[in-house]
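Saturday, quiet lab. Running sequence design on the structure tokens for the scaffold JK sent over.
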């Protein structure tokens, strides 16, 4: 837990969020500024600053994140049409919140390459 971290505050219930899935490892909630009809943030409960701070102890957690992303896409019925899982790392990679998270985007055609 980081006192200054907005995602830690959401996880602690101190700031509201539209949670669509949660378990002992992570939460998933609607992005406040969605970039697609389905845009969820999958956030581990453990405060990890960036992808570069992951260790082998986090391997199961990262695998679990991908499994949950697929489950949400399936349950919300956009899995078959296609979806994208994105992790932005550091400022040049578009990271704005310094608690690792994965964007799950779907519900429209997603172009490539991303901006
Ligand atoms: P990043 O740019 O760090 O990869 O993504 C941060 C994401 O968090 C952005 O898509 C932004 O809209 C979202 N976000 C920032 N603050 C909040 C918040 O308080 N609640 C929710 N639900 N999403 C947030
Ligand atoms: Zn945090």
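Result came back. Writing it out in full:
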């Amino acid at each position: 837990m980081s006192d200054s971290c907005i995602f830690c505050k959401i996880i602690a219930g101190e700031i509201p969020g539209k949670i669509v899935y949660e378990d002992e490892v992570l939460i998933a909630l609607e992005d406040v500024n969605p970039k697609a009809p389905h845009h969820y943030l999958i956030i581990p409960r453990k405060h990890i600053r960036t992808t570069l701070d992951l260790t082998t102890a986090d391997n199961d957690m990262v695998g679990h994140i991908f499994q949950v992303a697929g489950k949400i896409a399936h349950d919300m019925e956009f899995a078959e049409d296609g979806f994208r899982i994105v992790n932005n790392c550091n400022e040049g990679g578009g990271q704005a919140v310094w608690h690792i998270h994965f964007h799950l985007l779907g519900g429209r055609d997603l172009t490539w390459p991303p901006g």
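Notes for JK: The beta strands are 19-22, 26-30, 38-44, 83-86, 102-106. Residues 2, 5, 7-8, 47, 99 surround zinc ion (ligand 2) (CB under 6 Å). Ask whether to fix the surface positions before the next round.
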